[in-house]
């Protein structure tokens, strides 16, 4: 009888410990295995690699770039911007509209834990966004500086389709970023050019109106013509006066004296008329020429300003071209031929190890409590 009691006393702790082990480790691990192998829906992962680069990356690498790459700083803020967009609400909303994303993740046959909405999730946008970020992963490969996009769903075709849609949306985002950057760099310079062109056009209209109003085609050429006429008349007048003086000395009573005097009077009248057209009244050529020269000088100044602004515009365009960014697909989204998720063996090992640690902690606590009560 004593031996039987001793055996039972030794057996009871072991039996209790065994029950605890089975209850905390074996049973949950077995239930997890049943779910993974009998219930869990297979999920397929489509992967693609892409690169966000600038146009200046085509040039030969400088020492600074080489050092930066060797230190693992190969990614730019544009790369992180594209990565952030892929897991953003904007990208999720785009996929919901174009691909009916909620239906993809709630397809018939998906298990009650993995599908959306799962039994522990409310059907809200925040819940779906949390679910979306668990199935769309984009990371930066530190070794290659390439961005890696991994899309997980219940169908290989759906995963590939989602990955392609995200790449297309990201390319559109990059194009919009280029357009905004180009507008920021070129917009101000283009506006200055347009304003100066408008001023030149308005000034050209003023010149045309001035020419029509004053019956002037080319005041400078007309002034040359009038000055030439004045010079010719002055020459003729001087010659006629000299001829008259000679006649008066040699033949004072010659009848040609009167004729020469009449010619001199006519020449003086013509010369006075020509001079009045050049200078004198407000409608003479000199005031007109001054006003015309003022408009012409203003136009020349505006043309020089325009040339400078056009050069600045071309420089801004060249800078915008240098700062353009591109999204290049290094590898196309693949069509997976087997399910990578869930990783059954890894999950079982993690569950078993975690529960084993819990069992050890409970065992230590129970042993400590027994020793304390025994004392």
UniProtKB/TrEMBL annotation:
UniProt-recorded Gene Ontology molecular function terms: protein tyrosine kinase activity
The portions of this protein that span the membrane are: 20-40, 347-366
- Any idea which UniProt keywords this protein has? Coiled coil, Membrane, Transmembrane, Transmembrane helix
Residue ranges of coiled coil? 186-213
Presence of keyword Transmembrane helix: yes
Give an example GO cellular component term for this record.
Answer: plasma membrane
- Name the InterPro entries for this protein: Bact_polysacc_biosynth/exp (IPR050445)
Mind telling me what this protein is named? Capsule polysaccharide transporter
Organism whose genome encodes this protein = Swaminathania salitolerans
Could you read off the lineage of the organism from its UniProt record? Bacteria, Pseudomonadati, Pseudomonadota, Alphaproteobacteria, Acetobacterales
Q: Which gene encodes it?
A: wcbD
